[in-house]
Design brief:
Low-confidence stretches: none
Strand content: 35-45%
Shape: globular
Mean pLDDT: 94
Largest sheet: 6 strands, antiparallel, barrel
Order of helices and strands: EHEHEHEHHEEEHHEEEHEEEE
């Protein structure tokens, strides 16, 4: 099997990859590592890997690296796409949690030999610089606080570690963020109001193990939606800890539902992010592409 590994070149776990994972993989497969050199490079490398007809493409990094690989494959591939996989070397690793993936060569070898599983992905049609664009995601996308947290994380120091960095960014964003009025029109339901967070999830968690969709199944053809409207700070901190325990919360300020397609709009400028990557602005339409890719999980 000929495998391309697209490695996040600035991952803090890069040494672990080359020391503990790469040598074992090469004993079993024909492996070529393509290392990213700048932001967005993983998408370009995924397109390159497609042209070289690898049997499998693995993202070695976090949710952002996987997002770029998915987009590189979806935008440049046609017909039968090669299986995609993930070696979780990021800070959040939320989709890896959903799939119980570890940065271990032995587990990866077993999964590669077992073969891929049909997996859903999301299609986002939104606006960027005044033009309509299309992006894809495999774990989640969000609006409200989500894009603002991403901006803060991009500016934060890594010295605090992922858990504290995420917590500081989330609480700081909560204090400064002004909830925006958003209209959600899904297949079987509609919601309108001022929201702290609206998330559409294929995976179980986002934001470093915040379980907004603990019942999610990445291959069932349905995404889970999570809406938090105007929650006060004291309550938000309590809810945040409960969500980290993988529990759904029965509260009138939180709304759970399912979608296969949803239209999002706002009278204000409202950004959308996917897997820690800023995507564009509303209006946006999000659609489930059922079993669109084969994923190693």
């Amino acid at each position: 099997m000929k495998i391309a590994i697209i490695l996040n070149g600035i991952s803090r776990k890069k040494k672990k990859f080359y020391k503990e994972i790469y040598p074992i993989l090469t004993d079993h497969f024909n492996v070529e590592v393509l290392e990213t050199q700048h932001a967005g490079h993983a998408e370009e490398l995924a397109a390159t890997a497609l042209n070289q007809e690898f049997d499998c493409i693995l993202a070695a990094g976090g949710d952002g690296t996987l997002n770029h690989v998915i987009n590189g494959v979806m935008k440049n591939g046609s017909g039968n796409l090669p299986p995609i996989g993930l070696i979780p070397l990021g800070s959040g690793n939320d989709f890896a949690r959903t799939c119980s993936l570890r940065p271990e060569a032995r587990q990866l070898i077993q999964l590669l030999k077992a073969g891929p599983t049909p997996t859903d992905i999301g299609k986002i049609e939104c606006v960027y610089n005044g033009e309509k664009i299309t992006r894809y995601f495999i774990n989640e996308c969000s609006l409200g606080m989500g894009p603002e947290v991403v901006k803060r994380l991009n500016k934060s120091s890594s010295k605090w570690g992922p858990d504290l960095s995420y917590f500081i960014s989330i609480v700081s964003t909560f204090i400064s963020h002004q909830p925006q009025e958003i209209l959600c029109k899904a297949n079987a339901w509609t919601w309108k109001g001022k929201a702290r967070v609206i998330a559409i999830a294929n995976g179980k968690s986002f934001g470093n193990a915040i379980y907004i969709a603990p019942d999610a199944n990445p291959g069932d053809g349905v995404f889970n939606s999570f809406i938090a409207d105007i929650v006060p700070l004291w309550k938000f901190l309590i809810l945040l800890q409960t969500l980290k325990k993988k529990s759904k919360i029965n509260d009138p300020l939180l709304h759970y539902n399912t979608i296969t397609r949803v239209e999002l709009s706002s009278t204000e400028e409202c950004a959308i992010e996917a897997e820690g990557e800023l995507v564009g602005l509303l209006p946006a339409t999000i659609t489930v592409l059922m079993g669109k890719i084969s994923f190693i999980r």
